[in-house]
């Protein structure tokens, strides 16, 4: 079973609504958009991720005979609806921001244009795919900003909320600027560089720590990194210094040592001094264990001699902001703009575009949110990705997406790069969009729109 494309990985109410739409002839063209209502605390921006999996889902989703048999057995659905599902395909269009793009509240990351039953059905899985990777990419981007020129590795699979989450978190972190992941399957599926050292258990299984170091080095000589804090960190560093000449004579190059516990800053300084005194100035120090962007920023500010970090729980769970206030909402049906006016959840109607403006030095200044077709100055952020159910061009490579994300971070002004929050990019709502909101409200008899 391919969980990535399984149509039953949805909410029951999607199927309920689809059957009702079909029974009442409501199959006109619908426009839905996915966006975030507000930034989480301490976030000045978010980073879009997950589009590739969305496109793959749109192209691949089908109801198998086994799926239909199970649905039939529930007794919930009509024979006519099940016959409709037999030939279900996504035949619509999708427009989106490129993965790795920085964005702000109310700006659509993704727009789906399709017959209403199809567009409605996509809601659950598209939110599921986009929300997770956007959460993790946004968290990872903060870490990249907090630790410039340091090597960051995803160590999060064991703490991720399930296997798919771990895989997609590795992908999202790589997009945001991480150098790689410890998750082997992410290497196979996405081509992400994979990294790994050893566990404390390997050291503990030996009666002698130095013997454990040497055996591991001779078994795994490539990109050799030794874990030195199982017992006494500084003593472990001195054992590495003593072992290094024998390894060098055997043609084995020691790349680094890893610290995983205690006062990492203090240990790193002591270990750096031991390594340097022992002629191992080229050996890097890698650290892991309960790290987040605030600790990375502290290490950077205090010039702690750590060259790279393995980050797990705080990354893959986005510990301080594990979910986004995001939504996939109907913006147009049968050619008429639609919008919610619910308290605290009002939406801007219609098909929209975001135009981004930059200063002369290339830094981001502001965004304009407007109705599609209302051309503004600046760079338009949404572009076609699917037409008539098929991608319009090959998806960009992961390295190309990663390069785009790096360029986006480089163009952030200083206020948005800070970790503490409290700043954001001004997003202006254009008069054309306000007029469209007024038209939508008149159609439903609500009156003038006012601010959403």
Can you characterise this structure?
The chain has 452 residues and is an alpha/beta fold. The protein folds into two domains: 3-136 and 321-444, nicotinate phosphoribosyltransferase; 139-316, TIM Barrel (Alpha-Beta Barrel), CATH 3.20.20. The chain contains 17 helices and 19 strands. A seven-stranded antiparallel β-sheet has the order 13-12-1-5-3-17-18. A six-stranded parallel β-sheet has the order 7-6-11-10-9-8. It has a four-stranded mixed β-sheet with strand order 16-14-15-19. β12 (325-333) and β13 form a beta hairpin. The longest helix has 24 residues, at 123-146. The two termini are 43 Å apart. The mean pLDDT is 96. Belongs to the NAPRTase family. It comes from Candidatus Defluviicoccus seviourii. Its EC number is 6.3.4.21. Residues 378-435 form the Nicotinate phosphoribosyltransferase C-terminal domain.
Quickly describe the structure.
Its EC number is 6.3.4.21. The protein is an alpha/beta fold and 452 residues long. It contains 17 helices and 19 strands.
Blueprint of the fold:
Blueprint: H1 12-23, E1 29-38, E2 46-47, H2 51-60, H3 65-74, H4 79-86, E3 93-97, E4 102-103, E5 110-115, H5 116-121, H6 123-146, E6 151-154, H7 163-176, E7 180-181, H8 184-190, H9 200-204, H10 209-219, E8 224-227, H11 233-249, E9 254-259, H12 264-277, E10 284-288, H13 293-301, E11 308-311, H14 313-316, E12 325-333, E13 336-337, E14 352-358, E15 364-371, E16 379-380, E17 382-387, E18 390-391, H15 398-410, H16 414-417, E19 427-429, H17 431-444
Parallel strand pairs: 6-7, 6-11, 8-9, 9-10, 10-11, 15-19
Antiparallel strand pairs: 1-5, 1-12, 2-4, 3-5, 3-17, 12-13, 14-15, 14-16, 17-18
């Amino acid at each position: 079973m391919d969980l990535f494309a399984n149509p039953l990985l949805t909410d029951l109410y999607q199927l309920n609504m689809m059957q009702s739409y079909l029974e009442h002839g409501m199959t006109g063209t619908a426009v839905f958009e996915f966006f975030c209502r507000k930034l989480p605390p301490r976030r000045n921006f978010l980073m879009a991720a997950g589009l590739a999996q969305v496109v793959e889902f749109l192209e691949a989703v089908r109801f198998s005979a086994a799926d239909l048999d199970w649905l039939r057995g529930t007794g919930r659905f009509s024979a006519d609806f099940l016959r409709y599902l037999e030939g279900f395909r996504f035949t619509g269009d999708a427009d989106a921001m490129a993965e790795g793009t920085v964005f702000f509240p109310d700006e659509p990351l993704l727009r789906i244009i399709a017959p209403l039953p199809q567009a409605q059905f996509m809601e659950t899985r598209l939110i599921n795919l986009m929300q997770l990777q956007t959460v993790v990419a946004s968290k990872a981007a903060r870490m990249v900003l907090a630790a410039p020129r340091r090597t960051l590795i995803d160590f999060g699979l064991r703490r991720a909320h399930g296997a798919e989450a771990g895989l997609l978190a590795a992908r999202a972190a790589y997009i945001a600027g991480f150098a790689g992941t410890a998750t082997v399957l992410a290497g196979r599926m996405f081509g992400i560089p994979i990294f790994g050292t050893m566990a404390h258990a390997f050291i503990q299984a030996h009666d002698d720590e130095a013997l454990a170091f040497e055996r591991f080095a001779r078994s795994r000589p490539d990109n050799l990194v030794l874990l030195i804090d199982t017992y006494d960190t500084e003593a472990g560093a001195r054992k590495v210094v003593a072992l290094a000449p024998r390894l060098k004579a055997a043609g084995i190059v020691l790349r680094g040592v890893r610290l995983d516990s205690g006062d990492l800053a203090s240990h790193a300084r002591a270990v750096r001094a031991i390594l340097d005194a022992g002629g191992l100035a080229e050996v890097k120090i890698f650290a892991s264990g309960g790290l987040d962007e605030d600790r990375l920023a502290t290490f950077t500010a205090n010039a702690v001699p750590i060259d790279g970090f393995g980050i797990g729980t705080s990354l893959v769970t986005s510990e301080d902001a594990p979910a986004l206030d995001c939504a996939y909402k109907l913006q147009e049906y049968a050619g008429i703009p639609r919008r919610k006016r619910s308290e605290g959840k009002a939406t801007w109607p219609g098909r929209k575009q975001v135009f981004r403006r930059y200063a002369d030095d290339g830094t981001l200044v502001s965004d304009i949110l407007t109705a599609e077709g209302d051309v503004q100055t600046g760079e338009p952020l949404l572009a076609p990705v699917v037409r008539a159910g098929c991608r319009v061009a090959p998806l960009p490579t992961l390295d190309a997406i990663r390069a785009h994300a790096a360029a986006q971070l480089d163009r952030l002004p200083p206020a948005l790069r800070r970790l503490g929050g409290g700043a954001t990019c001004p997003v202006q709502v254009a008069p054309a969009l306000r007029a469209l909101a007024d038209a939508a409200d008149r159609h439903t008899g609500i009156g003038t729109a006012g601010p959403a």
